[in-house]
Design brief:
Elements lengths: L18 H28 L3 E7 L5 H11 L5 E7 L4 H8 L3 E6 L8 H8 L9 E5 L16 E7 L6 H4 L1 H5 L3 E5 L4 H4 L3 H11 L4 E4 L8 H15 L5
Parallel strand pairs: 1-4, 1-5, 2-3, 2-4, 5-6, 6-7
Helix pairs in contact: 1-4
Length: 240
C-alpha cells in the first residue's frame, strides 16, 4: 500500500469527514493517469508495438520469464521498461539477456504510472522493435488500477505462492488477458495443488488465456511465445 493511490482499498479507522477528500484525490489521480495512458497508447501504436504489462507479487519470476522471452523472441529485440522501488538489477539482467531495458526506480511509489512509462519510453530505441514489455512493480494491489497504455496484461503466479492467490487478489487476475503459472518445475517439491489453482482461476478470470511453464527450464515457454506472436500480428500494421 502507499499514500499516493490508497491502493483502491477501504481505509481502516478513518473518520467520516476526510473520506470525500480521499475519494476525490484518487479519482483525480486516476483521471490524469488515464489521459497519459491514452497518449502512451497512441505512441505505441504509431511505433507498431505490441505492449504488454506484466504484473505479479515479488518473487513470482517476472524477470526470469522476460529473460527467457528476450532470448527466444524471433522478431527483433524485446524492449522492457522495468519498475522497482530501488536498484537497476533487473534492467541489467535483461540487458545481458539481449533486451533493450530501461529501469524506473519508483522510490516509495508501489506501482507504475503512465507518465513514468512515457519518460522511460523516450529512452528506448524502438526502430526494429515489435514487442515492448512493462515489468510492473511487484505488487498485487496497486498496479491493477493504473492503465499504462498497454494492449495486454499478463498476471504471473508462481507455484510457490499458493493456489488461492487469485481468490485473495481477484481484481488483478480478472484484469489480465493471460495468466502464467510459473516455476512448474518446483510444483511437486512445494506440494502445489494444480487442480485447485485452475479452479480458482476459472472462477476469477475465466476469460484469461492460461500458460503453465518454467522460466528456468524453458518447459512450456513456446506456447507463450506463440501466443505473443499471434497477438503481435494483430497489433502491427500490415505495412510495418
Amino acid at each position: 500500500m502507499c499514500s499516493h493511490c490508497s491502493c483502491g482499498q477501504p481505509m481502516a479507522s478513518v473518520a467520516a469527514a476526510p473520506a470525500p477528500r480521499t475519494l476525490l484525490l484518487r479519482h483525480n489521480l486516476l483521471e490524469r493517469n488515464d489521459s497519459n495512458a491514452a497518449r502512451n497508447r497512441e505512441r505505441f501504436a504509431a511505433a507498431g508495438l505490441l505492449v504488454v504489462n506484466v504484473l505479479s507479487a515479488p518473487g513470482a519470476g517476472k524477470t526470469a520469464l522476460l529473460e527467457a522471452v528476450a532470448r527466444q523472441w524471433r522478431h527483433g529485440p524485446v524492449g522492457v521498461i522495468v519498475g522497482d522501488l530501488a536498484t537497476d538489477n533487473d534492467a541489467r539482467r535483461l540487458q545481458a539477456a539481449g533486451a533493450r531495458a530501461v529501469q524506473i526506480q519508483t522510490g516509495d511509489l508501489c506501482h507504475l504510472e503512465a507518465s513514468l512509462v512515457a519518460g522511460a519510453f523516450d529512452q528506448l530505441d524502438t526502430g526494429d522493435m515489435e514487442l515492448l514489455v512493462i515489468e510492473n512493480v511487484g505488487n498485487l494491489v496497486c498496479p491493477t488500477a493504473f492503465d499504462l497504455g498497454e494492449q495486454l496484461r499478463i498476471a504471473v503466479l508462481s507455484v510457490t505462492e499458493g493456489e488461492d492467490k487469485p481468490l485473495k487478489y481477484p481484481a488483478l487476475f480478472h484484469s489480465a488477458d493471460a495468466v502464467v503459472i510459473n516455476k512448474t518445475d518446483l510444483a511437486a517439491a512445494v506440494g502445489f495443488d494444480r487442480a485447485a489453482a485452475l479452479a480458482h482461476l476459472a472462477a476469477v478470470a475465466p476469460h484469461a488465456r492460461l500458460f503453465e511453464l518454467s522460466a528456468r527450464t524453458g518447459a512450456g515457454l513456446e506456447a507463450l511465445l506463440h501466443w505473443l506472436e499471434h497477438q503481435r500480428q494483430g497489433a502491427v500494421p500490415a505495412c510495418a
